[in-house]
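Listing S7. Sequence submitted for prediction.
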Amino acid sequence: MPIAASHSLSRRLSSLIGSDQAVSNLQRYFGAGAQHEVAPFRGSRFEHLAGGGDRPAVANTVTADDLIAVQTLSVRIPAQAALDLLEGDLGVRLSKLLSSVRLDIDMVEAEATDLADGSPAHTAWHLLRGQPGIGWVTAGKLLARKRPRLVPVYDQVVRCVLGRPKSFWLDVRAALRSDNWALHHQLTALRQAAELPETVSVLRICDVVLWMHHRTDHVQKNCSGP
């Protein structure tokens, strides 16, 4: 990613994350802090359901809990693909790829080769996306459930508010690493300010802030983002 483009995305992210509504939006979404008596969004269970998709016992295997977790983010994996992930060859192939995707690092710590075309993570995304009824959004959300620190949730709302970056994973990684990880540290501080546990990854903090900021405007016809 060109340096100028990286700085542009970093500035855009920093502006949104630093908005006056960021903390309250996070607390509203997760039912935390000042919003603890308000019913949280269903997506607040995405990373925590059944102990998380990256817990050691299941980190490289898609489980029924993972399939339910992605439904909290308003997507559904078709029955045939779900069965194949749980009991068939698709699950075996994905498990083999996941075993080569690190789960002990944040995106900001990853090498570009961990996320680029041809990497196990990117190959896993392509494998999922190639299944009938699984698009790019659903594929990404399932991988984010399995590797929440490394792979971000990404959908049409976030893509729109960020101006449709060309290579989202690598672009966000570059933005997080710029200026001595300034954006990463800003997100960590935001998580603390919203009184959220560290089990909510920095990437998820970023996703929720962006989604909450733009979700209402996005439903308007012909929304084209900023």
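Caption to Listing S7: primary sequence and predicted structure tokens for the chain studied. The first helix runs from residue 3 to 17. The chain has a mean pLDDT of 93.
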